[in-house]
Design goal:
By secondary structure, the protein is mainly α. It is 74% helix and 0% strand. Helix 6 runs antiparallel to helix 7.
Length: 388
C-alpha cells in the first residue's frame, strides 16, 4: 500500500510539472492542493508514530506529577529522571545494536562526532531535569504550556544565528503567536502563594516582584530553562542527524544524558548526606531502611516508568526519519493540548491534578501557542517532505 501510494503521487506530481513546467498560475496551485489531499493517506501512514510520541510525552508528564507530588512514595525529580532516562537509554541502545544492527554506525558516531554528542547530551540532561522538577512545582499542564511554544521559538532563533537559516515573515508571525501563548500560560496562575513552586533550590522563597497578574515562580523559570536546554540540545542533534541516523543519535544522546543525570544524583546525595547525616533517607528519596517491600516497589516503579522515555524517544526518532523535523515537531507539540485536556478530564473524574488557576487563560494560551508552532513550520508541510 505504501509503495503504491508513493508511485501514484510521484506520477501525478511529475505530470503536473511536465504540463506547467513550474509556471505560477492558479490551475497549478489548485492541482497541487489536490495532490496534497491525495497524499494524505501516505502522510497519515508515516506520521502515526509521532502521535504515539505526543501521547507518550503527555502520559509521562502526568505520571511525573503523580509520582513526585501525589503518590505515597514521593520520588524526587532527580532520582526519577536519572534512573528512567538511563534505563530508557540502555533499552534504546539495545534496540539500535541488537535489533537494527547498527553497531558500526554507533562506533562511528562516538569516534567522529563525540564533541557534538557530548554537548547535545549535556544540554538535554539539563532540559530533562528542569522539565521533571518544574512539573513537581507547577504541574504537568503549565510546564508544557510554558516550555512547548518557547522551545520552538528558541530553536528557530538559534537556527537563524548558528545555522544561517532564513527567517521569513511567516516565521515572525508564528514566533509572535507562540510567545503570546507563552505569556498567557504564565498569566494563567494569577495568585502568589508560599507553596513549593515559589521555593528555590536553596529552600528560600523565590517569587517575582511583578504584579499579581503576571507571576513568575521558580517552577516557571525552570520550565523556561528546560526550553533553553532542549533547544540547545536540538541544535547539536541537528548537526548529528545530518551525518548519522536518527535512531543512532537518539539512543546515544539519551544514554549519555542518563549518565550525566546519574552524576547529578550522586552529587545531590553526597551533599544531602553532609547536611543531614543522621536521618533515615534523604530529601531525594524518603524511605524506611526496615521496609524492603517499599524499596522493591520503588525499583519496580522506576523500571516501569523508564518505558515511557524509551517509547517516546524511539517514536520520535522514527518519526524524524519518516516525515522530517518540522512535521514531527508540530505533531509532537500537540502534547501541550493533550496533557491539559487529559488533566481536566482527570479532575472531573475526581483525580487531583495541579492545574493553572485560570483554566480559560491556560486553554487559550495552549491553543495560541500551538497555532504559533504550526505557523512557524507551515512552509515545510508540503509534499516534498513526505515523499522520500
Amino acid at each position: 500500500m505504501k509503495v503504491g501510494v508513493e508511485i501514484y503521487v510521484n506520477q501525478v506530481y511529475g505530470l503536473i510539472c511536465r504540463i506547467y513546467n513550474g509556471k505560477d498560475n492558479q490551475n497549478e496551485l489548485l492541482l497541487f492542493y489536490v495532490l496534497e489531499v491525495l497524499a494524505l493517506p501516505l502522510l497519515i501512514q508515516k506520521s502515526w508514530v509521532v502521535f504515539v510520541y505526543a501521547i507518550t510525552i503527555s502520559i509521562e508528564s502526568i505520571v511525573i506529577e503523580y509520582l513526585t507530588t501525589r503518590s505515597t512514595i514521593q520520588v524526587s525529580p532527580i532520582l526519577l529522571s536519572a534512573i528512567s532516562i538511563t534505563l530508557g537509554g540502555i533499552m534504546l541502545m539495545m534496540v539500535t545494536l541488537l535489533v537494527l544492527k547498527k553497531k558500526e554506525g554507533i562506533a562511528i558516531l562516538f569516534l567522529k562526532s563525540w564533541k557534538n554528542l557530548l554537548l547535545a547530551s549535556l544540554f538535554l540532561s539539563i532540559g530533562i531535569f528542569t522539565w521533571y522538577d518544574s512539573i513537581n512545582r507547577i504541574g504537568a499542564s503549565k510546564e508544557l504550556l510554558i516550555a512547548g511554544p518557547l522551545e520552538i521559538v528558541i530553536i528557530v532563533l538559534l537556527a537563524r544565528v548558528f545555522l544561517r537559516e532564513t527567517l521569513k515573515n511567516i516565521h515572525i508571525i508564528g514566533i509572535a503567536l507562540a510567545l503570546f501563548g507563552f505569556v498567557l500560560a504564565i498569566m494563567s496562575d494569577s495568585s502568589i502563594s508560599e507553596d513549593k513552586e515559589n521555593i528555590g533550590w536553596n529552600g528560600l522563597p523565590n517569587v517575582s516582584t511583578l504584579p499579581n497578574t503576571f507571576n513568575i515562580t521558580f517552577g516557571d523559570m525552570e520550565a523556561i530553562l528546560s526550553a533553553f536546554g532542549f533547544a540547545l540540545g536540538v541544535l547539536f542533534l541537528t548537526k548529528l542527524v545530518s551525518r548519522h541516523s536518527s535512531i543512532e543519535v537518539a539512543s546515544s544522546s539519551m544514554l549519555i544524558s542518563g549518565f550525566i543525570l546519574v552524576g547529578f544524583l550522586i552529587l545531590g546525595l553526597l551533599l544531602d548526606e553532609m547536611q543531614h547525616p543522621s536521618t533515615s533517607g534523604t530529601s531525594i528519596l524518603t524511605y524506611s531502611t526496615e521496609n524492603s517491600q517499599q524499596l522493591i516497589l520503588i525499583v519496580v516503579i522506576l523500571i516501569l516508568f523508564s518505558l515511557l522515555p524509551f517509547v517516546g524517544s524511539l517514536s520520535y526518532s522514527t518519526g524524524l526519519s519518516r516525515i522530517g523535523a518540522s512535521l514531527t515537531a508540530t505533531i509532537g507539540s500537540s502534547s501541550i493540548l493533550i496533557t491539559l485536556v487529559a488533566q481536566l478530564l482527570l479532575v472531573e473524574a475526581g483525580v487531583p491534578s495541579n492545574l493553572p488557576n485560570n483554566i480559560f487563560l491556560a486553554v487559550l494560551g495552549g491553543i495560541i501557542g500551538f497555532l504559533g508552532i504550526y505557523i512557524i513550520h507551515m512552509r515545510d508541510y508540503s509534499l516534498y517532505s513526505t515523499r522520500s
